């Protein structure tokens, strides 16, 4: 069983889109593996794409949320709130098959659908984790999504499994549940100044590694509590520079500059904190292609292709060059940029 969380403390970096690509392409490449997507973002963006795109998914999302129990991640968490310290033996009511709504999706891909109710019940989840009895209430509650992966793994029987968890940018309790359930962390970012600070926030919030100004808060930070309670945290696995501006077939200088700055920052963190990296022996900046962990992967910007995919729920392997209609507009996918885009995304998927 392998599990990856997609998270950055900054929104708009394409984490849900990359989660969709990773899930649909991995499921296509490995039909004997059950690929589970757990959508822990209240906006449910990856669920929308898997269920047919922004134009068709509302009906599917409504039908799943109207079921009893809700066939969503919020439905599962509601059940856990009703019985906080006992695992649910049968989690099948909370799992859907996107192929039933979107025929383009591989049949071995499963979804625990996102739900805006997640935001509403988050305070109840947080309060349950703070109960004085049992004494390990925080640990048990923080393990709810990990429990879900264990149950799903049992449900798959002898088949291999892969779990991809899409997390909200905030460090809310439902984000913490998703991160604790993952073995590895994928951090998408974009070429702007705020991305560097956002990645520093990832390291500070999740691992408690920050500058001296925040040292007084170390005794109450998430990482310290996780260590005291024996909760394993995911290792930094890949950094994905998304939507890279291209000039004459190469990354633009601004994108390269940001990437270089982030590589240097992560190398500096690695020198004193190797234990938080999936591949502790090698500097992150040296792990671009040769080593399939801690990769710095660059994805070129191709706005038209991403719009087509998210609007129609079309996986990368089914995306073809040519003209197609999106709503009332005719859009064109040209062969050369599409192939460059496909190659970069396939390289990313091959790292999993």
Model description:
By secondary structure, this protein is of the alpha/beta class. It has a single domain (2-350), classed as P-loop containing nucleotide triphosphate hydrolases (Rossmann fold, 3-Layer(aba) Sandwich). 43% of the residues lie in helices and 17% in strands. It contains 13 helices and eleven strands. It has helices at residues 15-29, 45-50, 57-65, 73-82, 117-129, 137-142, 144-156, 173-181, 193-207, 222-229, 253-272, 303-312, 335-350; strands spanning 2-6, 33-40, 109-112, 160-167, 184-189, 235-244, 246-247, 250-251, 295-300, 322-326, 329-333. The strands form three sheets. It has a seven-stranded parallel sheet, sandwiched between helices. A hairpin with a 2-residue loop joins strand 7 and strand 8. Helix 4 runs parallel beside helix 5 (117-129), helix 7 (144-156) crosses helix 8 (173-181) and helix 9 packs parallel to helix 11 (253-272). The longest helix is centred in the C-terminal third of the chain and has 20 residues, at 253-272. The protein is globular and about 60 Å long. The model is unreliable at 288-294 (pLDDT under 50).
